[in-house]
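This section describes the prediction task in plain terms. A model, or a person checking by hand, is given the sequence of a single protein chain and must write out its three-dimensional structure as a string of tokens. No templates, partner chains or ligands are provided. The sample shown here is typical of the held-out split.
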Amino acid sequence: MISSVFVAALSGLALVNAQSSTSPVTGKLGDAQVVSTNPVGVTYVATLPGTSVKGSVSGSSASGTGVDFTVSFSNFPTSGGPFLYHIHDAPVPADGNCTGTLAHLDPTQRGEMPPCDPAQPQTCQVGDLSGKYGKITADPFTASYTDQYASTESGIGAFFGNRSITVHYANTTRITCANFTLSSSNSTGSSNTSTPTSPSSPSAPAFTGGAANSIASLSLVMVGAAAALLL
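The expected answer:
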């Protein structure tokens, strides 16, 4: 009897473990939300210093929904891959130490483990770009994709314009890093939102110089005629 209860308990534990390892992982604040308020035409670029791995990551929004990322890297070490790259929460400190970039951008507080499921990117950390769109397996490496959950809108948790990109070995050791900086902005926004002006009221036409001269001449004639009548 005891053995059968023990076996049943183990079976139940195994089932729970299997479910927890296959179920989607949601952050403490829920899944990442699609960002549809990104300013169109605003671009942020992070360019690596080039001391080891070279390249850059740029992100902008053409439609306002999500961010279109363009990734270009080269000059990787000959071993230690496949390499990883993420948006990290903090900018690179003045001393250039990539440890200072802290953890991945993670506004939903998901955490890094278990690993991101690319089939369900909304359940991943916003900054886990290689987890969602593929590790670096070639040198040079290029990729382009739209991430629905990152943002170029300052002031929200998914905003990456004041953060950094960090490249890692497969064992997560940091290789290099760089800050995102504003590359271009939408300078036409103000012209599209100008305040319309009220129609101006009609005004009486002003006398021109020629008309004023005619009136003066007529006045002289009338004065002369009056003087002749008095004589």
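For orientation: The chain has four helices and seven strands.
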